[in-house]
Amino acid sequence: MPTSATELYLPAPAKLNLMLRIVGRRADGYHLLQTVFQLIDHCDWLRFRLRHDGQIKLNTPLPGVPAERDLTVRAARLLQGQARENYGVEIEVEKNLPMGGGLGGGSSDAATTLVALNTLWNMGLSDEALEELGISLGADVPVFIRGRSAWAEGVGETLTPVVLPESWYVVVIPACPVPTAKVFAAERLTRNSKPITITDFFEGQQTNDCLPVVLDMYPQIRSAVEDLAKQRQHARLTGTGACVFAACASKAEADRVAASLRDKWPLFVTKGMNHSLLHQTLGRSS
């Protein structure tokens, strides 16, 4: 693990939603989901340096995002409220995951921050305790703390580990970030899909209820889906988008598909993982 007593350098892996069903809505307006999170090996990387003065400093702010709104800072302040010592931290983020892409980059950065500072600040909190804190930052944060590919229900926080094929994927990144709230507010969004079982998913029920809405709202995403589908039979949307992806039988096939699209689209090739690269870097079993 690349670490010292005062510094940690850790990945924040992305995820793909292999399916997404909206099965209801709570009284508070949050949508009830069924989804499958596939962790992948494409990551942001975060460096944490211990401070002893209680200050939390983000050295790499995102353009247009005030530091106090950044999820890494919010995660650090949330955990700092549980700490017994006057610890602080300097955070640097190497940002590789697009904002508004449906890859969970902000949530994963927050999860890695909670996991890292739990270690750096010698807090000794369990993953379950970190998940309870993390859910207030975003519904996807717990799956990144848990570090396992998972079947998820509720608002995405009720997790059941699943073993998925560790496929190679081509992920296309249309240049149109998608605000999740905009998709969930759409009038024509399906909100009453029939719940399915994990077995149903493995037998092929892998639709994304957000796809028709997103394709209508964003012609660029429609074009990306069409272009990827010409190379692969099944092009899918991750989360509410914007990224679209397709599974391939091998890295060689994924590289071939990527080469055919690279002149038109930003994209990357990545491998599915059942165990998070964050946990592997920390030397932990998930």
**End-to-end gap:** 16 Å
The string of secondary-structure elements, in order, is EEEHEHHHEEEHHHHEEHEH
CATH fold title of the largest domain: Ribosomal Protein S5, domain 2
Q: Give average pLDDT, whole number.
A: 94
Query: Helical element count?
Result: 10
Q: Compute the number of strand runs.
A: 10
Described by strand count, sense and barrel closure, the largest sheet is: 10 strands, mixed
Question: Could you tell me the strand content as a percent range?
Answer: 25-35%
Taken from the alpha-carbon principal axes, the silhouette is globular
Radius of gyration: 19 Å
Structural class: alpha+beta
CATH architecture designation of the largest domain: 2-Layer Sandwich
What portion of residues is helical?
25-40%
Low-confidence stretches: none
- Write down the domain tally: 2
